[in-house]
Automatic annotation (TrEMBL):
<keyword id="KW-0677">Repeat</keyword>
<dbReference type="InterPro" id="IPR057443">
    <property type="entry name" value="At5g54830-like"/>
</dbReference>
<protein>
    <recommendedName>
        <fullName>Protein Skeletor</fullName>
    </recommendedName>
</protein>
<feature type="domain" description="DOMON">
    <location>
        <begin position="279"/>
        <end position="412"/>
    </location>
</feature>
<dbReference type="Pfam" id="PF03351">
    <property type="entry name" value="DOMON"/>
</dbReference>
<dbReference type="InterPro" id="IPR045266">
    <property type="entry name" value="DOH_DOMON"/>
</dbReference>
<dbReference type="Pfam" id="PF10517">
    <property type="entry name" value="DM13"/>
</dbReference>
<keyword id="KW-0732">Signal</keyword>
<feature type="domain" description="DM13">
    <location>
        <begin position="148"/>
        <end position="252"/>
    </location>
</feature>
<dbReference type="InterPro" id="IPR019545">
    <property type="entry name" value="DM13_domain"/>
</dbReference>
<dbReference type="InterPro" id="IPR052126">
    <property type="entry name" value="Spindle_Org/Thrombomodulin"/>
</dbReference>
<dbReference type="Pfam" id="PF25489">
    <property type="entry name" value="At5g54830"/>
</dbReference>
<feature type="domain" description="DM13">
    <location>
        <begin position="29"/>
        <end position="136"/>
    </location>
</feature>
<dbReference type="InterPro" id="IPR005018">
    <property type="entry name" value="DOMON_domain"/>
</dbReference>
<feature type="signal peptide">
    <location>
        <begin position="1"/>
        <end position="24"/>
    </location>
</feature>
Amino acid sequence: MCLVLMARLLLCSILLLERNYVIGTEYRGKSLGTLNSYHHQVGGEVYAVNEYTLLISDFTFDGSANDAFFWAGASSRPGPQGFILANEYGRTDVLKRYLGKELKLTLPDNKKLTEINWLAIYDLSKNIAFGDVYVPEDFEPPIKQVIGDLTTKSHGVSSGPIEILDSKTIKIPMFSYNGAGKDTYFVVGNGPQPSAKGKKIPDESGYLDNLRTYLNETIILELVGDTTVFDIDWLSVYDLQTKDNFGWVLIPDEPNVPPSLQKVADKIENIMHCVQLHKKLQLSWQVFGPQITIRLAGQIDEDNYMAFGFSGSEEAPQMLGADIAITYIDGFRGQAMDYNITDKSPCVKVLGQYKGVCRDTLVGGLDDNQVHTATRENGINVITYRRNLQSYDVGDKEFKTNTLNSMIWAIGRMNHQKEPSVHDFFPRSVLKLDLDPKPPIDTCYSFTVNTETVKKDVWEQPKIIDSSLRMMTATLGPSGGKKGFQGLTGLPSPGLAWFINGYLIPEIWLKRGITYVIHIYGGNNPHSSQYYHPFVITDEPNGGYDGMTDVAQKQTRILAGVQYTLRRQARPTSAGPLCLRERKGFDRRLDDNFISFKEFNKSLDMRCEPGDPAVLEFKPNSSWPDIVYYHSFVQSNMGWKLHIVDKFSTGRNSAAQVQFNWLLGILLYLIFTQM
């Protein structure tokens, strides 16, 4: 009897191990089988990734053959009739030694897997196959699968035919939702229909906030952690508070789709509690005695920061009045700097006082965050720091364990002065955080890493190359997200940028010896840290001369826009009333949804204060470098390049374009002078 029980237990254990093995196995595509090995220790498993691509895992070849290649063909067996496949580097070199390597091979000339019968490791000089695998006659390679529209229930939810692009990616075309749900998310799960037992997944921008309004938008969703389409039965637009399903679609069993380009990273260890704030950011914490230990983990670029702290409002995510920590890695050293926010701008000195996003130490406070550990691996920053629940700094807010805390977070880029620029990711709603939940909370999951380089999409760089240009108009407007200023310059942005003759930071060609005039509407209220931007031209690319160190100021040459006092201190001369382009009520996180600057510009309204513009007149001469920069005197990274030339090349601009630029400058001047 005991032996029978032991046998049954052993069988159950084996089945459980097998089940776990299947679940834990990474999906690489549709299997073609194991390479048949004939010579030179060839081995490996071959998969079809899609119609055009093969993947060989654990590939082995001793590399001792003199004329061996990856070789494919349509004949009944490997032979001289075939073609070479480029190796994993895209080259058709003679194969070298491989030992347990994973590599992708793409068929040349848009050939499809259905057009070949075999893949071989083949010696062309000896006409010998060292190893091969065959493609079955009725083989169907993985392709995207169309599974039908969302079934509409309520709240205006609708879509076009949904596509499963790969094992972790779902495309929803023409998606609409009226945004009226109370606690609504994209939710996936198991079972015959949607339920509150499902799991939230990030929206198309990685947010885990209550869904916004959509109107016929095409969005792409990615499943999180190690979840794939093989693990779920449905996708729903679901309100977790009311437990209402607004619209849903069934996921077919075992869809024949390509593997995801995302690789699952190891899960970051929690301190005690963990909350996934965004697809790219996790918060973990533990309260012990009078102190709180906080760990931020973010899938961010090297020059990025992670911010976390108290909102300036109990009910909304508000920057003004916020008390936050800015964490980043400077070389090999982690930082968790205490910041106080008094205005929506990087920190600047306004009439002798610091305003904006400023370090506590600059505004009379204390920096009482203590960094414990900081690491960066596989593009993930993990920074752990500690602070007293009740800080010694009277300007800091208290972490309360007996009530909910209203918190905010952000991800952005540090500028060249190691100060935070405008954040790229931030919440739509305030985070109500219980510091001592029971039982411990953990909504975090493993980050996923893209295995292939993603091409960054940016708007076309505007250029003004006009030999007849004499007058320009400079106004302010939003910098346009990662497709705008950041994408065009590669620099972080404070959120505002110069618009010259209606274009966002155009590169402008000017000729030495010609006098130019710029009418400037940069704001002339020196009490404002956000909207006071005198226009200057310098020989360095960042700007913000007023906030530079003494050493940096001495190394910077200001070519136009200032006067010097008797003590050789620069004083700006060209500010003018404020003319500002503003978004028509839409969320700036959607800036990157615009396919072009033209479309983005159409979405903006112009607001101008009364008054005449400041007039800056200058004449480039032989002492000017070939490339100089227009900037704000007080804020860095708001302008871009001026190309200074001795003569204009012929044929670069048509007569019509020259006349258009000239008329545009006159028209903008007339419009602004009438406001």
